[in-house]
Design brief:
The chain has helices spanning 4-12, 14-27, 33-46, 78-87. It has 88 residues and is an all-alpha fold. It comes from Rhizosphaericola mali.
């Protein structure tokens, strides 16, 4: 089952992403992106205990994250999307 980038972050842990971003923020002090990312991950995930799969929450809720559902990436507009791709 494919896991995707947010699922991988849940496996590695939010603190890993925050620590990596802190290194990037030091390397690029004029770029506010990394500090904004750190602040957002801290308030939206770490402060709420959504740390990784072992804490049962991250970007997804565990043990049954939504990406394991076969319908996860399907949309009501799949037919429209497929028609548009065919035209392209």
């Amino acid at each position: 089952m494919p896991i995707g980038s947010f699922g991988i972050i849940d496996v590695s842990g939010m603190n890993t992403i925050i620590n990596t971003s802190k290194l990037q923020a030091k390397q690029y002090p004029d770029d506010s992106f990394f500090q904004k990312l750190i602040d957002r991950l801290q308030t939206e995930f770490v402060d709420k205990g959504k740390l990784r799969t072992s804490s049962c929450a991250g970007f997804y809720s565990y043990p049954n994250p939504k990406y394991k559902n076969l319908e996860f990436l399907k949309s009501k507009n799949d037919k429209i999307i497929s028609i548009n791709l065919h035209i392209i």
